[in-house]
Fold:
Amino acid sequence: MTARTSRTHPLAVLAMLMAIAGWTVLPVIGSLMALRCAQAAARAIARDPAFDDGEGLLGVAVLLAWAALIAGALAATALAVWTLASR
Structure:
């Protein structure tokens, strides 16, 4: 009897790394790449039964990516309003 191990898709891991990069070193590009990698990983996980793990990782990556994009948009808006109000 062989033990079945769960495998996480590499794109799910990459999506998580890009979501973290979206908060640190690549604010917009990292978040957009995370969303794209998460979409591709979700399709690959649904298609290939060998990769049965990674949905939770994808959920967190998507959440982090969207939160970084929204936080960036709010910061840019606040900066614009503050700059225009100080004139």
